[in-house]
Amino acid sequence: MQDIAAMSIDGEAADWFARLRGPDANGARAAFEHWYAVPDHAAAYDHLARTWDQAKFLANTPTGRGRNLDRAGPGHRRGQAVAMATGIVLAMLLGVVLLGRLNSQNRPPDAAAPPTLAAAGDTPRTIALADGSRVILDRASRLEVAFDGTARRVRLLAGRARFDVVHDTARPFVVEAGGGSVVAHGTMFDVAVAPGGFDVALLRGTVDVRDRGADTEPVHVQRLVSGQKVAMRGGAFATPVAMTTLDTQWPQPVLDFDATPLAEAVAAFNQSSRRPVRIDPAAAGRLLVTGTFRRDDPETFAGALAVTFDLRVQRNADASLTLVPGSARGGAKKP
After folding, report:
1. Rounded to whole angstroms, what are the CA distances from 112 to 79, 109, 150?
2. Which of the given ranges, 27-36, 135-144, 307-316, has the highest pLDDT on average?
3. Are 144 and 115 in contact (CB under 8 A)?
4. Beta carbons within 8 Å of 17's beta carbon, 6+ residues apart
5. Has domain 253-330 been given CATH number 3.55.50.30?
């Protein structure tokens, strides 16, 4: 299976590479800088630029010697459009991308696209799907995609994802996860795989949450409206409740707590941290957390909580951190 995250980002990088060397380069500059600020985007663009620099297909021809091929480097994003020599090299670099798009456009509407697996790394990752919808995959999440002429099917195998779905009356968008499914047409919602089921949070529009996979007749259907979330465990729905600010923050690099119960704050942090933070029951209490913390820095998060609530951080053999009773001034303690 292919990695559609890499494929879509590489395609976007190729588009920008060509556009920045065309007549509308100056007008596209601000939009490019915004796109390039995403680390995955910058890596894809820089890789393409390095490929360009290393190729030098025309370096030993009269035409190539008359052109500055280094204009394609990421540090040189200003200037006039390149001439014929640059266009020839760029066409060779982007040929595979363009050919793939033409094949996709010419595919019969009833031809099924092969399922594709995508995996996110250590940080949330954005994927552009073939229909124009977008998915943000949380760390260590996995996804299968299979679109055809009648339906857009996605299976969340692990982790959590945010779906921003393009409206298509003829083809419903179906996300299968944890023994159930979510059916939408044009909306934005989160789905998270959980032990014994899954969770759904709706940011915009309406969706139908079903307690069986999309290929079987559902026993129950729960309709959500914007701002609601629901959990399904063991085939049974909990009562839908209102989303909180924490429910919307997970794609961001930081978490912002405002008088959040300690246990809830730690649980939210652990959802996207490789190194979990735990609370000794004797240290829980009725404590409220206020502050902004980076998701990728469990040491600072645990340390700040310890200082605030006069606790101590205990480092465990499995690399986890536990907040235990005692003064933070005494330092972290190993088990």
Report:
1. 44, 8, 9
2. 307-316
3. yes
4. 45, 48, 49, 52, 72, 90, 93, 94
5. yes
Residue (of 203, 278, 292, 283) closest to 248 by Cα position = 203
Residue, of 321 and 283, whose pLDDT is higher: 321
* Alpha carbons 311 and 325: distance in angstroms, whole number: 5
Phi, psi of 170 (to 5 degrees): -75, -20
Instruction: Return the amino acid letter for 235.
Output: G
CA distance 206 to 220: 16
The ranges of the chain annotated as CATH 3.55.50.30 are: 253-330
The letter for the amino acid at 294 is R
Tell me the whole-structure pTM to 2 decimals. 0.58
pLDDT in tens, 213-238: 555 666 788 999 999 999 999 888 99
For residue 179, give both structure tokens.
């023994």
Question: In which residue ranges of the chain is CATH 2.60.120.1440 found?
Answer: 116-242
Residues facing 243 on adjacent strands: none
Higher confidence at residue 132 or residue 19?
132
- pLDDT band, very low/low/confident/very high, at 253 (cuts 50, 70, 90): confident
Topology of the domain covering 116-242: Jelly Rolls (2.60.120)
